[in-house]
Specification:
This protein is of the alpha+beta class. Helix 1 packs antiparallel against helix 2 and helix 5 packs parallel to helix 13. The longest helix is centred in the N-terminal third of the chain and has 22 residues. The protein is globular and about 115 Å long.
Length: about 725
């Protein structure tokens, strides 16, 4: 049943009075005519003018017609088909494509009407297709982003009777966020067909190579390489680390029964400024499933041995003293300190733009306080807006009201604050330990070491963590885990920040490392030093104090991928520049190509190129405005490196089961998919339901109304003219 309503911009009473007035004016105008005309012609003229006036008034009223229609729609399901390389590769049980086809053929989806089933195939992106047919897949996707596919389903659910989703994949996602969260937010059950072998094949691979994105000349940098070996009980492999084509180190790996993970750590001491490519290469074992995953590369940006830090402190404190001592021991680090007195003055020079412009990043220790000047906050905000990272360490006298003016650059928002303090015991969970700030040896044992730290002080300050932020450490009070974080980080939109919502970090030095040394335990790590060093390194990665920032979206591409670039441009006041001309030159072995980037607002630019052969490439770009050069940037990327799809050769069955359980769906192996259609049809929520659609049409925007009014006036004029009327 449909319902209709008409709304106008004024009250109907006023509108009717105006209509009556228009009709009365028309009647009065034609009451007496010169020369006199017949009653029929007078009626025609009056009608034409009245209609024209009514149409004009109707347009002025801005009428909107609302139609509400209702109908019953059959239940619908969205099928998400993994079209990535890994879903169609060969594993320990043979070709995955055979299991994939079997799962779809036995699914029973053909028992549903065509308009009940919509289908998308996905890999790094998504694409709508007509039917859940195996023949529509080519397994050419270069990566797997399951969360993007689920989010597309969520966005397309409006106006549909979407009651369920079906996901067919091996679960080896290597882009995007963890899809379990997105599946839970979908609000519909996700049924999952798992493709692939659940047992790891005989294979040796370099799972990852991790190091700092930024390093400094002559400063040692740890390089962590994670090697995984499955299906072998003995053997010997050589793991080599290369800087470009130059071998800089090697380690022997001895395979033992029952062990699969073999972490290795190298020390890299860069001696040349610029982008360097580090590659870990692993030897091969007999009868490996593939050798395509026996190497991995990473780019590292080597800078001159110089880092400048601006430290703001609300008052002298032990935390300030201990952190300064650590910075003095760091090679190439220079810092400028601005320590505030009880009033707005500083013990040394007050901050000014020239001093802050040279700083690489900013550290707050109990800053700002109640007497901090607003102009100082605004000055710092301009530096943070330019992309400089921020390390925030709380104190009892921190003024969170003044800090709110900088919350845009922090990983949290303050809900309330009270200066009452308590002891907070740091608590590191399994999902937190992977954060670079907490890295000690890169093993699972790191968590146990961090969880032995003495407590910090914390005020009764309650915060909400921003969605893009990451909790690095929680805390406990009297062995009860609290919901608020102790340490939280944010890396978003080329801006980094790290916040410690407690104080008394010096206790980690005195009561942990100091106590160990007093007992003669010199082998234990100094966690205070590690935390400070890791924090500085992680924050240094930003290096965003440049006015022109040009980068490749990824550092490693396959030959079939587009090379995508993004850029940001700022003027001398760090305001975004939208109309700059950005040119990027790409250089490789025997190849040079120039491209231009297009603006898409707020100082941001993007562009892409494709058709590059395998190899290493360097790029340099510059930005110009009205013939004046604003700045330049450079970087490197590789084409033809190992595809991400070869990193994981097994079905991620735990992830797939979690997706199904979190969403209220079910998980099936290929031999079990014949049960799916009965489970779906027997689901009490998979039912038809009424759908209400509301549409609004702005009648005043219809050109025919104005055309009708003009036509009526034109005919009236023509009749009057032919009748010789005045």
């Amino acid at each position: 049943m449909n319902s209709y309503s008409l709304a106008i911009s004024i009250s109907w009473a006023v509108a009717i009075l105006l209509f009556i007035a228009a009709a009365a004016l028309t009647f009065y105008t034609y009451r007496i005519t010169v020369p006199p005309v017949s009653g029929r012609k007078k009626a025609l003229l009056m009608s034409l003018r009245a209609i024209a006036l009514f149409l004009l008034l109707f347009i002025v009223y801005e009428p909107i017609m609302t139609i509400i229609s209702g109908s019953e729609k059959a239940p619908e399901i969205v099928v998400m088909l993994d079209n990535s390389l890994s879903a169609g590769m060969k594993d320990g049980t043979g070709e995955r494509t055979a299991d994939y086809k079997k799962a779809l053929d036995n699914s029973g989806l053909d028992k549903l009407d065509n308009d009940q089933v919509s289908v998308i195939k996905f890999s790094e992106g998504t694409e709508e297709i007509f039917s859940p047919s195996f023949d529509s897949l080519d397994f050419s996707g270069q990566s797997t982003n399951i969360s993007r596919a689920i989010r597309k389903v969520t966005k397309s659910a409006a106006g549909k009777n979407l009651r369920a989703a079906l996901l067919v994949t091996d679960g080896a996602f290597n882009e995007g966020t963890n899809p379990v969260y997105d599946a839970g937010m979908l609000g519909r059950p996700v049924y999952v067909f798992g493709i692939g072998d659940t047992v790891s094949p005989k294979d040796a691979s370099v799972k990852s190579i991790l190091t700092n994105e930024t390093a400094y000349i002559d400063n040692p940098v740890p390089v962590n390489v994670d090697v995984e070996i499955n299906g072998y009980s003995d053997g010997e492999l050589l793991l080599e680390l290369f800087d470009g084509n130059k071998k800089i180190s090697e380690q022997q790996i001895f395979v033992s029964e029952g062990k699969t993970n073999y972490p290795a750590m190298f020390e890299y001491i860069p001696d040349t400024e610029g982008y360097r490519k580090l590659t870990a290469k692993l030897g091969t074992l007999e009868n490996e499933l593939t050798e395509k995953n026996n190497s991995a590369s990473v780019f590292i940006n080597v800078l001159k041995n110089k880092r400048k830090i601006a430290i703001f402190a609300g008052a002298p404190s032990p935390d300030l003293s201990f952190i300064k001592n650590e910075l003095k021991n760091e090679k190439g680090v220079k810092f400028t300190e601005f320590i505030q007195k009880k009033g707005p003055e500083y013990y040394n020079d007050a901050p000014n733009p020239s001093l802050l412009n040279d700083a690489e990043f900013i550290v707050f220790i109990g800053y700002p306080i109640a007497s901090t000047r607003p102009q100082d906050i605004e000055m710092i905000a301009r530096q943070l807006e330019a992309g400089k990272p921020l390390l925030f360490i709380a104190a009892q006298n921190t003024d969170y009201n003044k800090l709110k003016k900088l919350e845009e650059y922090l990983p949290f928002r303050t809900v309330s604050s009270n200066i009452r303090e308590f002891m907070a015991i740091p608590e590191i969970s399994d999902r937190m330990i992977s954060h670079p700030v907490l890295r000690i040896n890169g093993t699972d044992d790191d968590k146990d070491v961090w969880n032995q730290l003495p407590p910090l002080f914390r005020t009764e300050t309650f915060v909400t963590v921003k969605p893009e932020s990451r909790i690095v450490a929680g805390f406990k009070v009297n062995n009860v885990a609290m919901k608020d974080p102790l340490i939280v980080s944010r890396d978003f939109n080329d801006k980094k920040s790290l916040a410690v919502l407690g104080y008394g970090l010096y206790r980690w030095k005195l009561l942990a490392a100091g106590a160990d040394r007093s007992r003669g335990q010199t082998g234990k790590p100094d966690l205070f030093r590690i935390f400070v060093q890791n924090s500085l390194r992680w924050l240094s990665v930003s290096n965003r104090n440049k006015k022109v920032i040009i980068k490749s979206v990824k550092s490693n591409y396959t030959e079939s991928e587009k090379i995508e670039f993004s850029a940001q441009v700022y003027d001398d006041s760090y305001n975004p520049v939208d109309n700059a001309k950005i040119s990027v030159s790409i250089l490789g072995e025997g190849e040079k190509r120039d491209i231009s980037l297009s603006s898409y607002g707020n100082g941001r630019y993007s562009g892409s190129a494709e058709g590059f052969a395998s190899g290493d490439y360097a790029f340099s770009g510059s930005a110009e405005l009205e013939g004046r050069k604003l700045g330049s940037d450079r970087g490197r990327f590789s084409v033809g490196e190992l595809n991400l799809e070869y990193r994981d050769m097994t079905m991620n069955i735990n992830l797939l089961r979690n997706i199904a359980n979190e969403s209220g769906g079910k998980f099936y192996l290929p031999d079990e998919t014949d049960k799916f259609i009965n489970d779906l049809l027997n689901d009490r929520n998979f039912q038809a339901r009424p759908i209400t659609l509301r549409s609004e049409t702005a009648l005043w925007d219809i050109p025919w109304l104005l055309a009708g009014a003009i036509l009526c006036f034109g005919i009236e004029w023509l009749v009057r003219k032919r009748s010789g009327m005045l």
